Amino acid sequence: MRTRSGRPRRVALALVAGWGPVSSVPEEGSIAIEHELAKLPPEERGPAAAFLAAHPAGAGAPVAVVIPAYNEGPTVAAVVAAIPNELGGLATEVIVVSDGSTDATTAEAASAGALVCDIPFNRGQGLVFKLGYWLARTRGAQVIATIDADGQYEPLELERLVEPIVAGRADFVNGSRRLGTELTTDPIRHAGVIFFGGLVSVLLRQRITDPACGIRAMRANITESVRLDQPQYQTSELLIGTAMRGFRVIEVATTMLDRPEGATGTKKGPNLLYGMRFARAVLGTWRRERNAARTRLRSEKTQYS
After folding, report:
1. Are the C-beta atoms of 219 and 180 separated by less than 8 Å?
2. In this model, does residue 131 exceed pLDDT 90?
3. Taking the model in full, what pTM does it have?
């Protein structure tokens, strides 16, 4: 197995802060994976099975960077190639889930060294993220990071998101352009980040400055523990669900660039429509998690009464 730089990857890793080496999946594990594959939506089963046939379960790196991509052929290869082979002192692999791309996204990502799962239909970023998380966990990832395929985030900054998790200081690390640098030129989007940061901070009773940031890292088990329903706006859903379930959430400064020359246009739609949909995702997730917490509390009171 070779890395994105062409150097052989070290499969056996020394223990780093309790993070162990990846091990192979026993036969009973393969049966369990077949069972989990059957639970996937029909349109995902074939591509996921093909992905695991090419990149076996349990044989992955401790850190996986999951990248959703829809027609990002002009930029995805540069993003993948710039991701370090190690993050937080642990070997790192890149998983790109192509969301029904009709351009060269799949080929470009694979040529840059990514492991690619090619979904034939466009399903939405939230659903593609959910599949990518499952693939990463099945491969054996203990930490999952995310970054967009459009080149607006700095891949080298993934280190500052993964390191606090490996060191045991956090469970979920959210990037923040407001704590760092924002070089985009859309004042309405900038105002929206400030507004939603304030709203989410009030709802969570914790300061969150950038609930829409696309560069993040988390313990892999979070993506299984937190309910993920959003087909598109899953960034805020995962952040809010993680915080409300008691995981340790911190933010670190990151950079957001303007779209590089030649990049495809934004797929988020007009600002007003995007804002309304994002608000619905934020408030809907908060209500859902609040109700779930109340249900758990009543159940605990009943159990011990």
Report:
1. no
2. yes
3. 0.88
- DSSP of 281-293: HHHHHHHHHHHHH
**Which positions ≥6 away from 148 have C-beta within 8 Å?**
67, 68, 79, 214, 215
Distance in Å from the first CA to the final CA of the chain = 56
Q: How many whole angstroms separate alpha carbon 250 and alpha carbon 244?
A: 13
Per residue in 17-53, is it b (16+ CB within 10 Å) or e — as a string?
Answer: eebeebeebeeeeeeebeeebeebeeebeebbeebbe
Distance, CA of 97 to CA of 187 (rounded, Å): 31
Task: Give the separation between CA 74 and CA 63, rounded to whole angstroms.
Answer: 25
- Cα angle 162, 130, 61 (rounded to 5 degrees) comes to 40
Task: Judge residue 238's burial from the number of C-beta atoms within 10 Å of its C-beta, 0-12 exposed, 13-18 middle, 19 or more buried.
Answer: buried
CA–CA separation, 266 and 274 (whole Å): 11
Q: How many CB atoms lie within 10 A of CB 8?
A: 8
From the list 218, 188, 194, 189, the residue with the least C-alpha distance to 207 is 194
Contacts for 221 with CB less than 8 Å, ≥ 6 apart: 137
Spatial neighbors of 246 by CB under 8 A, at least 6 apart, are none
More confident residue, 265 or 67: 67
Report the pLDDT value the prediction gives residue 24, as an integer from 0 to 100.
52
Structure tokens at 284: 């809907």
Structure tokens at 200: 């989410």
Long-range contact set of residues 287-296: C-beta below 8 Å, sequence gap at least 24: 288/227, 289/227, 289/240, 289/241, 289/244, 289/245, 290/244, 292/227, 293/244
Q: What is the CATH number of domain 27-304?
A: 3.90.550.10
* Residue 241 and residue 286 in contact, taking contact as beta carbons nearer than 8 Å: no
Residue 258 tokens read as 């303007």
